[in-house]
């Protein structure tokens, strides 16, 4: 069990640029989740996948955000035309595919928009 | 009203004492409950899960769940300086797509 892996750990970019983050879940886990956390707040749900299917998207996820999990393994989260308000920690979590299973988080990608 | 509420703290406890953290939730159909510990600048780390009313103990941690009162708590016995962190309460239910809804966290400071 190597844990959930996220890349990069930090990303600094200028407003208006596109960014892409990658998440590799725990290998036996078929559910994968993306959350966003800002300073002093708890994580907020963005979207989740069961295998390659994206089953739910939060209303927080504007049209500038897109997530994929093409082969049911790793996932990518892309933010187009970044804005100052996108600055946050982006967290990926994974779990087994049965209900109520605990989610295990990666170290996150910290995004800073200049 | 927030879906999951926690006192933001800081909760200051002397080393060796019991830290008591509380969490209330608004959705009666919530079905599973988790406590995560988050050190500054790090990601949340699962420390406890609880699904049924009552107490669940794991080492120095005890989680307590009361679904009728929509209340879940975490006790940390023999608090150590290394327990200083933010503790996040999270709830989910199947109908919400298994997403976790988090409280804002309670910051705990354990003073030597």
Question: Can you walk through the features of this model?
Answer:
The complex is a heterodimer of chains A (114) and B (112). With 114 residues, chain A is mainly beta. In chain A, 0% of the residues lie in helices and 49% in strands. Chain A is built from no helices and 11 strands. In chain A, β5 and β6 form a beta hairpin. The termini of chain A are far apart. By secondary structure, chain B is mainly beta. Chain B is built from no helices and 11 strands. In chain B, strands 2, 4, 5, 9, 10 and 11 form a 6-stranded mixed β-sheet that branches. A 5-stranded antiparallel β-sheet of chain B has the order 1-3-8-7-6, with no helix packed on it. In chain B, a hairpin with a 6-residue loop joins β4 and β5. Chain B is globular.
What brief labels describe this structure?
heterodimer; A: 114 residues; mainly beta; seven-stranded mixed β-sheet; four-stranded antiparallel β-sheet; 11 strands; B: mainly beta
Which structural class do the helices and strands of chain A define? mainly beta
Largest sheet of chain A: 7 strands, mixed
Enumerate the spans of chain A where pLDDT stays under 50 for 5 or more consecutive residues: none
Order of helices and strands of chain B: EEEEEEEEEEE
Number of strand segments of chain B: 11
Helix content of chain A: under 10%
Distance between the termini of chain A: 36 Å
In what range is the share of β-strand residues of chain A? over 45%
Structural class computed from helices and strand pairing of chain B: mainly beta
How many β-strand stretches of chain A? 11
Fraction of residues in H or I helices of chain B = under 10%
State the shape of chain B.
globular
- The residue-averaged pLDDT of chain B reads 93
- Output the helix-strand order of chain A: EEEEEEEEEEE
Largest interface: A-B, 27 and 26 residues
Q: Return Rg of chain A in Å.
A: 13 Å
């Amino acid at each position: 069990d190597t844990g959930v892996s996220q890349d990069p750990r930090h990303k600094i970019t200028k407003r208006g640029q596109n960014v892409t983050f990658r998440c590799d879940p725990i290998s036996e886990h078929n559910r994968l989740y993306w959350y966003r956390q800002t300073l002093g707040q708890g994580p907020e749900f963005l979207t989740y996948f069961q295998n390659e299917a994206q089953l739910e998207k939060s209303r927080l996820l504007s049209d500038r955000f897109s997530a994929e999990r093409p082969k049911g393994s790793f996932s990518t989260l892309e933010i187009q035309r970044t804005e100052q308000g996108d600055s946050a920690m982006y967290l990926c979590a994974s779990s087994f595919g049965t209900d109520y299973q605990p989610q295990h988080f990666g170290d996150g990608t910290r995004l800073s928009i200049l | 009203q927030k879906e999951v509420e926690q006192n933001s703290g800081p909760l200051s406890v002397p080393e060796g004492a019991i830290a008591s953290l509380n969490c209330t939730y608004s959705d009666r159909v919530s079905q599973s409950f988790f406590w995560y510990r988050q050190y500054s600048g790090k990601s949340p780390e699962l420390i406890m899960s609880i699904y049924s009313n009552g107490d669940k103990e794991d080492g120095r941690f005890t989680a307590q769940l009361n679904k009728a009162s929509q209340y879940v708590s975490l006790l940390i016995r023999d608090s150590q300086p290394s327990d200083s962190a933010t503790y996040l309460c999270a709830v989910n239910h199947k109908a919400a797509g298994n997403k976790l809804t988090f409280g804002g966290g309670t910051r705990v400071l354990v003073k030597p």
